[in-house]
């Protein structure tokens, strides 16, 4: 039983795949921060950023629409921003009456909402591209090199390693429940809602206990091999001139986007 | 039926214990459950020993004492060095402990990082670490798996990588907890050949009597936290009364 649902890496031979992971991580973060810093309604700058994203898509040889198709899944989260439609002061465009209160959609609110949507949509796509062209261990190495605190990179590395193990564990628990969810002849299978909820709660409790005990065993395995509170890793990455050029180009692009957005 | 502990009638020629000496080891788990009730054991250079006994006999608990993950009352000596708090790191590089579940043993994203974990934490220089990783993977015949992700491996592959993760520390004693559990016949056969070829003293806990018979000249039987027999595997596996009394079976 294997769950590969979390493996987003797409094996391909391309410029972006070969690029040093540090450059990719730094450029992605710069791109996302740049999007966040752009003023509302800077459409030219957004279009410019989008063009950069498309270019990256093409460079990765995954196809121009690779990240677009996968970005839709993140859009519902952007709907959290829907409150800004009503909360930003400006000229009202439409007025609703609801439960004795009046809500007005303002033009400034609409502008901000659309901008937030575009910003998050662009940012999510770049992040999707990053994990599609970088192997996960390389991502963690890159974070280590970029001086992200060891405790965070360690947690991320462990999370990734055991996500698969835990999902398999969940699948096994669910399967065990399924195979015993039987029905006597002539009666309906399963009990009441409360009973089912209790079973689900027990499953969650089981999973927590198993994970907790597993963490104990993993800690023992680490101690047995000399772990004393500090993690050491060897990183085979080396920046080549190509990587420096790519980093410089990405930074220049971000700078240019900001210029376009502000003037 | 209470288990009676007969005196050990399988005595082997006395060995000085130049690899391992365990003397009168007692241990109880925090919940008060006694796990070891005075275990004594000696291992010498080149000894390959099967550790047998029913579930709950204290086999795994004993293993966890060999490199100080648990510490009970009594003495543990590795290669003449008494296990204390101060020399714990040294002892841990000398005792390669492999856990039963390889998913607990392989905690790094890639095979390379897992095998390099021990040597790196011993403070070895990078070139030496790389050389040791290559040698350890070569020893378990998994060199081509160097850059693979651990969670994509089969159980048999994980087991062999788990052994490589301690071989890279160049231990003088291998302690394996049920290495053949859950393996299909082919993976089991590969593991047997691998263990036979490794020129290191080993203490292997197992329920696999055939494995013990084939691989280990000496066997130690534990029950209720005590060593109840220690001698030639052939003799012990011949003694049906002893095996039955301790929940074991003739192969």
Ordered list of secondary-structure elements with their pairings:
The complex is a heterodimer of chains A (263) and B (251).
Chain A: H1 15-18, H2 21-37, H3 43-59, H4 66-71, H5 75-78, H6 84-87, E1 92-98, E2 101-106, H7 107-133, H8 136-145, H9 150-180, H10 193-224, H11 241-262
Antiparallel strand pairs in A: 1-2
Helix pairs in contact in A: 2-7, 2-8, 2-11, 3-7, 3-11, 8-9
Chain B: E1 20-28, E2 34-43, E3 48-52, H1 59-66, E4 73-78, E5 81-82, H2 88-94, E6 95-98, H3 102-105, H4 111-121, H5 126-139, H6 155-167, E7 173-177, H7 185-197, E8 201-205, H8 209-215, E9 218-223, E10 226-232, H9 233-238, H10 240-245
Parallel strand pairs in B: 3-8, 3-9, 6-7, 7-8
Antiparallel strand pairs in B: 1-2, 1-4, 4-5, 9-10
Helix pairs in contact in B: 4-5, 4-6, 5-6
Q: How would you describe this structure to a colleague?
A:
The complex is a heterodimer of chains A (263) and B (251). The longest helix of chain A has 32 residues. A two-stranded antiparallel sheet of chain A has the order 1-2. Chain A is mainly alpha-helical and 263 residues long. In chain B, helix 4 packs across helix 5 and helix 4 packs parallel to helix 6. Chain B has 251 residues and is of the alpha/beta class. Chain B has 10 helices and 10 strands. Chain B is globular, with a radius of gyration of 18 Å. In chain B, strands 6-7-8-3-9-10 form a 6-stranded mixed beta sheet, sandwiched between helices. A 4-stranded antiparallel beta sheet of chain B has the order 2-1-4-5, with helices on one face. Helices cover 35% and strands 24% of the residues of chain B. Chains A and B meet through helix 8, helix 9 and helix 10 of A and helix 2, helix 3, helix 4 and helix 5 of B.
